[in-house]
Each structure stands twice: as C-alpha cells, then as structure tokens.
Amino acid sequence: KADEMGYRVNRVAQSMARKPIQIGIIVTEEWPEHYEDLKKGMQLELEGLADYNVFGKFYTISVPYSEEKTMQAVASCMDDAVDAVIVCPYHQDANHNGFVEAVNQLEVPVVSLGSDLAGIHHLCCVKVDTYTSGKLAAEYMKQIIQPDQSAVVFIGNKDFIEHREKMTGFLEEANRSGMKVEGVFETQDDPKIACYLTDKLLKEHVKVGGIYIATGNSVAVCRCLKENDRRDIRIVGTDVFEEIQGYVEDGTISGIIFQDPVKQGRCAVRTLYRYLVEHEKVEKEILVAPQIVLKSIMKYYL
User: Fold this and answer.
1) 32/7: higher pLDDT
2) How far is residue 46 from each of residues 49, 79, 103, measured CA to CA in Å?
3) 18, 33, 109, 194 — which has fewest CB within 10 A?
C-alpha cells in the first residue's frame, strides 16, 4: 500500500533516530602529495554524510613512522569506541611491530585504503588498480620512445604489494609489445637514492629512452635529468601534485599515471556507510581505474 501511494523512506530522518556512526581514520603525514588527497576525499564524503549522522575522526601518525605512534592511534580508536576504521598503510611491514594485531583486536569493520596490508582482517581494500597502472605506463612508453631504445622502472620496494603489481604489469605489457626493459630499480621512496640511481643509469645504460617512475620520486629524477641536460629521456611519472607541474609543462615528464586518491578516499567512506547503514554486501577489493594525464589537461587534475 505504501509503495502504491509513492512513499519513500526518509533516510535523513531515519539516521537521526539511531546513534551516530563514528569512523576512525588512521593516516600518516608521510608522502603528503598522496596521502593529503586520500584525506581530502574522505573529508568530502564525510561532509556529504553529516546529515545522515555519520562522522569521522582522524588519528594522524606524525613522521617519523614509529611503533609507538601507530599503537597510540589504534589505542585512541579503542578509547573513542569507533564503529569502524579506515587504515591508510604507509609501511607494509607494519605487521612486524604489532600494528595489524592491534587493529584486528578492535573488532570493528576495517577498510584498508590506498594499499593492502598483509594479515589485517579487513572488510575490504580500496586502492588504484596497480597492475593496470603498470600496463598503462608500458603501453604509453612504447609510443613515446624510439624503437631501438629501452626503458627502466623505478619503484619503491619490490616487497610492497602495490609496487610489485605495477612492476609486473609494466614488464608483461613491455614483453607483449616487444619493448626492451633494462631493469627495475628500487628507490625505497628516498629522493637521494632515486637521484643516485638516475646518475648511475645515465652513465651505464646509453640506450635507455624512458623511465617509468611508479611511486613518488618523480621530482628527484627530473631534477637529476635536467642537471645532466638529458632531454632525450622520456619520463612517465605517478600522481599529480603542484611540485611536478613545471616538469610536465617543460616536457621533462611526458605523461603521468593518475591514481585518483580523492576518489579512493571517497569510496572508502561510502563503502563503510553502505555496509553499516544500508547493510550492503561489500567486495573484498574495490579497484579504482588509473588514468593517463598529459600536459594539455594537467590543470584539471591539480
């Protein structure tokens, strides 16, 4: 009868009738170019859900990353009796310092955002499709270097799931297309190591025509190339942020694999809302599609 009369549930009124939902969000200050956008996405989604009695509280782990600070963040979540947790892992070896065990003891739904974390009992993981990111980078790289040139890959650490998936995607697509890859170099996400490896690369690999920077060291590599006046090497970077704008505009960076961290952040909050309030079934892994950004449309992504 209610359906025939056009009755619809007033979800705002319904939300006011239940206790508020508090989401605890554990995020690091490390690598602000990426994590600030994840945070921005979560804040935007929380603003939209405020009328639905859903709120978030951020527990920021200041640098340097330490066991004490991560455990304090988890303890604060427990003290505040949060209804769910979003974890933004930075160091994926956090399992060694008891962080994962502590999160699991919260016994609330957990969403891992940005990257997966081994051993965590999460509801789901929201991240960019890293394997496809690598394939996309290789497909584009093949188009912008000369047929007789090769490429190299700079990643942070092969032990990190997302870094390894980007590497695998790139290598598989390169092999399929016939593009030679000289090697994969681990920068440990350290600009000094990235600069050292770039110098070494320029001296030892004369046929290299392109570098895929799969993590956050684009600026260090670009600076090194400019200091050596190597405009012949094409760069495919990762993530869009203010500091690399100039390198895109002057042609040092040919293209960027955009991971849409704002969308990832919004998706994590929305997923928890749908699970907690609307009791929807949640996929174990929610992947955001990567995009390639070129100079002509860079301003729309900043």
Assistant:
1) 32
2) 5, 21, 22
3) 18
